[in-house]
Design brief:
Elements (H helix, E strand, L loop, with lengths): L1 H22 L8 H17 L3 H66 L4 H12 L1 H4 L6 E8 L3 E8 L9 H9 L9 E7 L2 E7 L11
Antiparallel strand pairs: 1-2, 2-4, 3-4
């Protein structure tokens, strides 16, 4: 009986000593690897709480930027295509003008040759020459240009114009040409050529169409 009591008291004392030792043991910091791992896990849990739409927002912004860049590129391409089309139209117009100029030059040379070799119809030629002589005064152009030559043959006339001031060049020739073809007596002519050369312009008039012209020898 006494022995059992001693064992019980001894066990009790041992438990008290162990408990006291446990409560007074100093606290140890967890290893650094443990703290880093714990922080990463905590950060991962926080990141998981973000809204999915918030995570996709940067991608939406990038897509919007790419769309703007594509639109800008399409606008530039359209502008270049329009500019190229305008250039093609201008080139075509210049080619047509060049062809017309060559054709006019050829017809003018043909009329010049006919005029040089053709006989004169005195009645008709005199009548046209008188009307041509009044042209500059009727059109109020006498202060801008002169007409030293106004001569006709059988069905072709040659008019030579000269600028009063040489530095004017071909400044007035379009105006002179437009005023000339408006004259009533000019309606009888089927072919008209005008060749400009700086301060001078030579005009040929024919009663025949250009396709009816034949060389005269």
């Amino acid at each position: 009986m006494f022995r059992q009591l001693c064992l019980i008291i001894g066990a009790f004392c041992l438990g008290v000593v162990v408990t006291h030792s446990y409560h007074h043991q100093p606290f140890k910091e967890p290893p650094a690897d443990f703290k880093d791992t714990n922080n990463q896990m905590t950060q991962a849990r926080l990141d998981d709480n973000f809204n999915a739409s918030e995570l996709s927002a940067p991608h939406d912004t990038q897509a919007h930027i790419d769309g703007d860049e594509l639109t800008s590129g399409d606008d530039m391409l359209l502008a270049l295509e329009q500019e190229n089309e305008q250039l093609r139209v201008q080139i075509a117009q210049l080619q047509q003008q060049t062809l017309r100029a060559k054709a006019t030059g050829n017809v003018a040379k043909q009329l010049q040759s006919i005029f040089e070799h053709q006989q004169r119809d005195e009645v008709w030629a005199s009548e046209v020459e008188i009307q041509a002589a009044d042209f500059l005064y009727v059109s109020a152009l006498q202060d801008l240009v002169s007409m030293p030559v106004a001569q006709c043959k059988e069905d072709v006339c040659q008019l030579n114009f000269q600028a009063i001031q040489r530095e004017d060049g071909n400044k007035h020739w379009q105006h002179v040409h437009n005023a000339l073809i408006k004259m009533p007596w000019m309606r009888q002519f089927k072919t008209i050529t005008a060749v400009q050369n700086g301060p001078s312009m030579q005009v040929h008039l024919s009663l025949k169409r250009s396709g009816e012209l034949k060389p005269v020898y």
